[in-house]
Amino acid sequence: MQHRTVQDVMTRDVIVAHRETTFKEIAGLFHRHDITAVPIVDDQDHPVGIVSEADLIRKEAALLDERHPVTRWLHPHGQYRAEAEIAEEMMTSPVVTARADWPLVEAAGVMHHKKLKRLPVTDEDGRLTGIVSRSDLLRPFLRENDSIREKITHNVLLDTLWLPADAVHVTVDDGIVTLTGTVERKSLIPVIESMCHSLDGVVAVRQTLGYEFDDTHVNATRSAVRGVIGPHSAPHH
Question: With the C-alpha atoms ordered 34, 18, 50, 82, is the resulting torsion angle positive or negative?
């Protein structure tokens, strides 16, 4: 089954700023466009950093440090933050980016390990093409239960695995898929589970599927025999 990628959920019309954009201009961008961060790009649209609300708040906190000599002494970075006036002095750099063809799980992994809330998305030349946030990655889980059930019943069970319509009963509740019924071969059960797991919106898969024939034992025996005889062995006459 096809996994969604970053390009399916990212914001393409990205609000950006430049190295020389001022603190006040960035605050204005946040307010007018209802955003919480802005990528900083160079003249070729390559991301060189990112400024978030947290960076603006740090500057405000640094201004407070500047007014209190004791706090300023405890935080040597205070004076630099207080004097920052443009994006280049406030931004977090270097910036971690994603590619549009990344699976969503890869982008989620990077955000989790790097403790990031968003990733600018770049093309093969390093130019900004979009931005993806944590909320964007959660969007596939908003799929309705009926839509998930329809996808499993038709795309997975009927069209892909060619199972009889009454072989597997599917219910979906809050993204949790429950499978009951009987399939012909035991080896089909993990295949069905895996394919259901791969669908957008599926949180978990629970199954109590029965089977008519245990082909896993036969396959294991055949593999063991091939291992003893060897793949290229020929019978003796």
Answer: negative
**226 has a pLDDT exceeding 80:** no
Give the 3-state secondary structure of the chain: CCCCEHHHHCECCCCCECCCCEHHHHHHHHHHHCCCEEEEECCCCCEEEEEEHHHHHHHHHHHHHHHCHHHHHHCCCHHHHHHCCEHHHHCECCCCCEECCCEHHHHHHHHHHHCCCEEEEECCCCCEEEEEEHHHHHHHHHCCHHHHHHHHHHHHHHHHCCCCCCCEEEEEECCEEEEEEEEEECCHHHHHHHHHHCCCCCCEEEECCEEEECHHHHHHHHHHHHHHHCCCCCCCC
Closest CA to 2 of 160, 138, 133: 160
Residue at token pair 């993204």: 175
Evaluate whether the domain defined by 143-216 bears CATH number 3.30.1340.30: yes
Are 186 and 209 contacting, i.e. CB atoms less than 8 angstroms apart? no
User: pTM of this prediction?
Assistant: 0.68
The CATH class, in words, for 6-139 is: alpha beta
Q: What is the pLDDT of residues 150-204, one digit of tens each?
A: 999 999 999 999 999 899 999 999 999 999 999 999 999 999 999 999 888 898 9
Q: Which residues does 216 contact at the CB level (< 8 Å), separation at least 6?
A: 186, 187
* Domains of the chain, residue spans: 6-139, 143-216
Dist. CA 98–CA 111, nearest whole Å: 10
